[in-house]
Acyltransferase 3 domain-containing protein
Amino acid sequence: MPSGPPRPSQQLAHATRTPNSAHRSRGFAWRRSMKLPAGDPGSSRLTYLDGLRGWAAFVVLLCHLFPFFLLRAHGPAADGFTHLLSGRTFAGYVEYAILSIALVFYRFFTDGDTPVYVFFVLSGYVLSVGYVKTRKRELITDQALRRYIRLTAPIFCACFIAFVFLKLGFMYNQRVAMLSGSDWIGGFYRWTPSFWGFVKFALFDVYFHFDDTRSYLFVLWTMRVELFGSFLIFCSLSLCGGLERRWAAYGIIFVATWFVDQDLIAFLMGLFIAEAYQLEDVRRFLARRGLKILAPIALIGVLVSPVVLFHFVPRNVWPSVESVVASIIVVSVMIFAPLQKMFSMKLSGFLGRISFSLYLTHPLVICSFGSWYFIALYKYLDRPLLVASAAVLVIVLSVLCARTFMVFDSWGVVQARRFSALILRKGGDFRTEAAILGSPAGNAEQSIGVSGLK
């Protein structure tokens, strides 16, 4: 699972010129200081999308905490009602529908798949929108040079923490599995960690040879999608972004991607949203009052999507359906003012800033402190009180750890920019150290839960 969320509009980093190299800075004129309205769909930075990313990361935490861990065997689960359909009677369907309503909110706010695909759609949008607005190829080069380092630096740090915890015996997930009734949490860390194994995993295996049974963080299955999806965007824009009839080319890429890896479709959906929002006719169409009324209706449909997907949609097309659902969420937020206001609030902004860190660190909290707490108080607290107290403490500690981990996340951003600046300087484009370090930490190479759409 990239990965890596958003805030008020900020100034883009200043392009810099030296007296003898004015011609060399032409490629980065796009960095001229300018204010972008936070709510303008045509701007490359939308504050509320950062907030959406932040809440998506929080829902992933709830997913792993409740249906996968604390309520794995005892909590509400829509699959428990499938027996009502076995008789295929009208009464069975009605009873199923009524009982499912009680589960809709629980399943939606603890469903980990939809928010992950929201991350993917947002990543596709963010990686595309700068180029789509300017059609300057150096933007693609700049982001492509940053991408691996941007993702890998915080992943490496988080995996190192997991490695240390394993060596010190701080991971209690296997011991808590039987007590909690969660076979899921007991499936991790059944192997002996080694330093070189950790290094190989963090630098290579996480992208190219991921095995969830030997992963240092169980959420990192998304990082392969993040890396491959990012370069799918870069290649698509490089090959087709400058064409007058690029939509036909995009369609061919979409069909090919469908057959190769449906997970990557979400990135293309983000690209399509970025391209569409640059069309004046599309913006006028989406500004119609009727469309703004349809947005909340569409979101209500999205609300029941986890239950519908689980029971009625074949698993082999889940990625494609989730990509469409995530795109509906993103577009609905972009055209529905009340949602924009909600996702622009301070709390949403805070979650946006820590979202990638939260995504990477919450598995550590669940498998260490959360599991230890459950074991320590299992005999002394009633089950409801134990679950409630464990949930509160894990959520609070996860947020605090994510806030602290932002140091490593921001460091990764800076190192990625320095690498890009070094390569581009040697290639004829020039940016000073001040321009690199002075630009906001969150930017267009953001990924799973990463803060700051620019």
The two ends are 22 Å apart (CA to CA). The CA atoms of residues 251 and 449 lie 28 Å apart. Residues 1-44, 74-90, 436-454 have pLDDT under 50 and may be disordered. Residues 22-438 form one domain.
